[in-house]
Amino acid sequence: MSDVKLLAAAQKIDILTVIDTETIKNYWNKSSPSRTPSQDKNAPTGLDHSNKFMICTGSRGIISGQGTGDLSFRAYVEDSVRFVGTSAYNNANDAVIIYKIQKFSGTDVFNQFNANVYVKKEAVQPNPNSDTRDGLPALHVPTNFSVLEATVRQSGTEGFGVCFALYTLSDDGQRQDLYGYFWWDPTITVA
């Protein structure tokens, strides 16, 4: 008996994007007037593909670049594609919010992207007061999860820009303030 795969059914494709914020801040040092990151979300600063790590699950196949900033993946019409961003600090010090996916070449593959928040009433997190200090058993607490998502509207290949806002931790260690807006360009191919 063979495994049955329903490849024509719409799938959720999740893309976790981890940004090395230290490298970005070291290059785009605000103290140097010639290198100031954009403060305008409609005109983000362009970046190369290094120090960005995209991990894709649920796609119709990785064309290339899994785990890099050069991800190219396949999807089908009606698939849902969801982007989530984080810093290497898990957004605790520096924080990353992916706010726009913008076409710059090829076919209009995606419908409108929207920021959506999902609330899990009993999501898990490590218990800092566990007997063995290993975080287990976990605590169940209400937690918000946010994604930027759209459905795939038609076949083709689209070069798109992933736009993100970078926030840095204030001197008092309690507030994250805008550092700048940035973008770079992976690819999607829809069969």
TrEMBL record:
<keyword id="KW-0804">Transcription</keyword>
<dbReference type="Pfam" id="PF12306">
    <property type="entry name" value="PixA"/>
</dbReference>
<protein>
    <submittedName>
        <fullName>DNA-directed RNA polymerase subunit beta</fullName>
    </submittedName>
</protein>
<keyword id="KW-0240">DNA-directed RNA polymerase</keyword>
<dbReference type="InterPro" id="IPR021087">
    <property type="entry name" value="Uncharacterised_PixA/AidA"/>
</dbReference>
<dbReference type="GO" id="GO:0000428">
    <property type="term" value="C:DNA-directed RNA polymerase complex"/>
</dbReference>
<dbReference type="InterPro" id="IPR038712">
    <property type="entry name" value="PixA-like_sf"/>
</dbReference>
